[in-house]
Design goal:
Distance between the termini: 13 Å
Strand order of the largest sheet: 6-7-8-3-9-10
CATH superfamily of one domain: P-loop containing nucleotide triphosphate hydrolases
Low-confidence stretches: 1-6, 16-21
CATH topology of one domain: Rossmann fold
Number of helices: 11
Number of strands: 10
Largest sheet: 6 strands, mixed
Helix content: 25-40%
Structural class: alpha/beta
Shape: globular
Order of helices and strands: HEEEHEEHEHHHHEHEHEEHH
Length: 276
Amino acid sequence: MEKRQSKVAVTLTNRKNERQDKNVKKVTALETKDLHVYYGSNLALKNISMPIYKNQVTAFIGPSGCGKSTYLRSLNRMNDEIQGCRVEGSIFYKDFNINQSSVNVFEIRKNIGMVFQRPNPFAKSIFDNVAFGPKQHGEKNKKVLQEIVEKSLRKAALWDEVKDRLNKSALALSGGQQQRLCIARAIAMEPDVLLLDEPASALDPISTSKIEELIMELKKDYTVVIVTHNMQQAARISDYTAFFYMGDLIEYGETRNIFTNPQQKQTEDYVSGNFG
């Protein structure tokens, strides 16, 4: 147990994004209040109230089945696609409650993009994967589409690797490249927020490292929320961490405090490896 705690402490000490100006006012990008999520009669998330801060990386940790992915999907109404799922409470984006039946969920997802656990590129060219969203929203100018594709691939740290084969199938890319392509596809819609559901869990260590470096770079332009089973990863790349357990939000705060000075015994037990 001591060895594991020591590794996390070293990770936190060496984090590139560790230094923060404490005088800078935190701006809320998203916020939930009294959020409950049901799958049929099963209450999966219980009364979650939490802000997510702009241009920060927020990590959700906790054992499998604790509700962290359910909460992530709530933030851009992806749970609407699950039969029998019901979401109660408020989800505020730009001071507007997006958890209302009158809301256009496609517009919400344009501003709050999502990348899933396993890379899911379309069976199209690399170019058409990235251009897909803008085309669907009416962009027809080829020059504009070319600019969007290049800009998005550059931001996803993929341009130099694929610029000479944009017309080749995206399915020919490696797993790590496919995941970065999916991030580029989300970026092409110019979102404010990127939701990442365990984006590196199916990748090798080298590809995982590239994704982590990318996430730390992306927070300059986006608010990033990531679900991860890897506590070392949360310690390396996140500014804030939320610990979920059995549908409850046990503790939420700056990552350094969650890992080195947790306020709840359950949090301490989890990050020290006593369970989970």
